[in-house]
Amino acid sequence: xxxxxxxxxxxxxxxxxxxxxxxxxxxxxxxxxxxxxxxxxxxxxxxxxxxxxxxxxxxxxxxxxxxxxxxxxxxxxxxxxxx
Length: 83
Hints:
Layout: H1 2-14, H2 19-29, H3 47-55, E1 56-61, E2 64-69
Antiparallel strand pairs: 1-2
Helix pairs in contact: 1-2, 1-3
């Protein structure tokens, strides 16, 4: 799917990840949800939105919002390509 490839490209360009990790993060984010239908709400957002949402997590501390990098999926998670 073009959107997923665009998300991978955004993550590689903006964050310190390689393609395999970007794919693993996407797989982890949407694990267990089955194939994305063309009319899915996922397609109502841009690749840069999803790249940021998948890479970062929101943390609230002392009433303030921070975005920090999520840890990459574990090597044995089944999310990494070719593993």
